[in-house]
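Example 3.
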Amino acid sequence: MGSLFTALTSAGQSLLAFEQAMDVTENNVTNANSPGYADQLPQMLSQPFQTGTGLAGGVKEVTQDTRDSYADTAVQQQLSLQGMYQQLQTTLAPLQNVFDVSSSSPIPSALNQLFQSFSQWSTQPNNANYQTAVIDAAQQTATAFQQAAVQLGQIQTDATNDIQTTVTQINQDAAAVQSYNESMAQNSTPNAGLSAQLESTLENLSSLANVTVIPGNGGMVTVLLGGQTPLVEGTQVNAVSAGNDTASNAGNPGAAPNISIFDSNGNDITSQITSGSLAGLLNARNTLLPSLIGGGQQVGGLNTLAQGLADTINNALAQGTTSSAPPYQAGSPLFTYNSSSPAGIASTLAVSSTITGSQLAAASAGPPYTANGEALTLAGLDSSTPGPLDGQGFTQYFGSLVSAVGNAVNNANTGVTAQTALVAQAKSLQQQVSGVSLDEEAIRLVQLQSSYDAVGKVVTEINDTLTSLMNMIPT
Amino acid sequence: METTIEYGGDARECLQAARQRMRQVKRLLSKPSMEAADESAALLRDVEVQLGCVAAILRQNGSKPDQEFRSGVEELQDEVAVLARYFAEADKMFSGWLLAVRSRRGGYTNRGQAAPLVLVKKLSVEG
């Protein structure tokens, strides 16, 4: 649906551009489709009388750029939000392969296998094949966690690299704006080609980060990053950089530190980046991924699950016994992990290298002694109520992680679709308002806003109706 | 488990019609104009009517699990979520833009806010 919408929007844009190009001068026709180009209008200005030189007043032709700076700002803001959602969509998409609830997905499949093996073992606790099946299933589970941790680590590394690339692009665009300012400093006469180039650069810059553009003297522009940090001031570029926030992982030294953005003086300006692809990357890298794989301030859902699973199973085995009569011999732990690095538990989860089938404690010493008491407890762990992990079973807990990832991806998808339409909207308005009076522009905006407000209310009502409908259809 | 098809053709047709109208709305909103907004409002009202029909049919006939039908409603919900986001952001965009136009046209008030917008029709008198 999104692609159809986008395609139609693009087609509409092209038609609109073509229609407008028909009515303008040769120069405008030639440049109508150039990125960032605005029509040039001849304007007659009266010349002031120069008392010193005695020149007559008269008139002079000055070319005026019809670009509406507010319309440009609106386009840049929408591009910035679109950039953020598109980046989130791209960065989060591979997460869905790791967090998948389908039965073929490694973690749910391994968990299912593990608890089935416990169930089978509980029927014949001394059956060597069943004991081996438990160890094999545990091995499969540990491998699934390790693989998920590796995949998440790779996604995290990719996000870090993408942040560096984006910062480089921002600095390159800033250099292009500086070059424009230098040209304007040498010759302040408006130049349609340069102006179009600048606009195109600013739109690209907006899709990378939230920037504010302030027109200055002599046609030069000042670009602020995050509304506060000067990126380009006249002919000076203040390059930004990305680096590790070494203080961010004080809580979990083993975890990857957050990535921060620094201004040219080394001040941390990460919190100022609120939109653009850089904001999307920072959000994924510093917030969403640590909530799964762990970070400086949190252990991460995957590690919590791995530790919860290992501890619960090991505790149950420790409470059981391998002997059939006193003195009772406690069972050996099935899983091991590196407890000194809480953010690395999933990646170090393994089956104890020394365990053998006979060391698995199936019996419960009681009293009364039950030959398969602990095996039965283990078989029912995932479906017990309340569950062993925050009141949830392990599969259910994994499901909640999948749900969180799904919501984040869904939110990004919704954002991309809505923002794509909004960018088209802002660009269309940008073309319509070029050259119209402020009054006309204001009237159009007020009318559009009230019309949209009315339509928006209907959408809210439909949403309510749909929610009721969903409640009426049983799952 | 295989789910049974419970809902009559009418409920499905209503849902189908609602989704079709929604597609038309998205097409219309790709270009900003009051005509497009008005037409969208009319279409969305029709979406509401169609969904009302679905609800009435479900109430009358009762309902059993039907994954396909549920998926259809969920997809419509996703499309509505996109539209809701679109309108929320469009509102912000128009408000910001209007604020800029107000300050550029009338300057700022003593409190530093954009001047109120006063639009009066121009009157030209001849003779």
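Chain B touches chain A through 60 residues (CB under 8 Å). The mean pLDDT of chain B is 79.
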